[in-house]
Amino acid sequence: MAVPKRKSSKARRDKRRNNVWKLDMPAFSKCPQCGELKTPHRVCGNCGYYKGKEIIKKEA
């Protein structure tokens, strides 16, 4: 069985581990109705449309 020659420092260990746990920033796409940025596969918070249909009634 492989055994490490020297003890890995806490800094080296944490440097190796920290990249795994980073969360990706959510992608954004433009709403075809109003052009506002929104997350994909979600109802637009600005106009209330999803896939060309009005889902949430918004007062203008």
TrEMBL record:
Q: Which InterPro entries match?
A: Ribosomal_bL32 (IPR002677), Ribosomal_bL32_bact (IPR044957), Ribosomal_zn-bd (IPR011332)
The entry's keywords: Ribonucleoprotein, Ribosomal protein
Q: Which GO terms describe its biological process?
A: translation
State the Gene Ontology terms under molecular function.
structural constituent of ribosome
Q: Which GO terms describe its cellular component?
A: large ribosomal subunit
Question: Looking at the keywords, is Membrane present?
Answer: no
Q: Name one Pfam family in it.
A: Ribosomal_L32p
The record's listing under HAMAP family reads: Ribosomal_bL32
| Family matches, as PANTHER family | 50S RIBOSOMAL PROTEIN L32, LARGE RIBOSOMAL SUBUNIT PROTEIN BL32
Give the record's family classification: Belongs to the bacterial ribosomal protein bL32 family.
Query: Per its UniProt record, what NCBIfam families does this chain match?
Result: rpmF_bact (TIGR01031)
Name of the protein: Large ribosomal subunit protein bL32
